[in-house]
Amino acid sequence: MKNFKGFFRIAAVIQPDDPELERRSKKRTQEDGKVVPESAVLEMKSNFSLPEDRDNLFDRIDFVELPKDVVLQLVRQYNQEGKSKPRQDGGAGRFDNKKSG
């Protein structure tokens, strides 16, 4: 974020509710033919986080679609879903700690 020093930085959190998210996912699949595997969705859910005031990265954080309290609850739910469901491929996620060798 150092490239934006001197700018007024705004984070826009765009988080739809579950029915709207599902509708958008289906639309994307129909229009583009892109399918996101469930294992990838679960990994994203387990790692999903929001910008926080204490991070001092943004001057303002706007919650565009849903109110902040609803989004916070959804993120907690998504994190729990992503961590509690076993991966079907049995492998480690791409963000899990790995040693290269």
Automatic annotation (TrEMBL):
One of its GO terms (biological process) is alternative mRNA splicing, via spliceosome. The keyword Lyase does not apply. The keyword Cell membrane does not apply. Keywords: Ribonucleoprotein. GO terms for cellular component: nucleus; ribonucleoprotein complex. Residues 78-101 are annotated as: Disordered. It comes from the Eukaryota. One of its GO terms (molecular function) is RNA binding. PANTHER family: B30.2_SPRY DOMAIN-CONTAINING PROTEIN-RELATED, HETEROGENEOUS NUCLEAR RIBONUCLEOPROTEIN U FAMILY MEMBER. This is Heterogeneous nuclear ribonucleoprotein u.
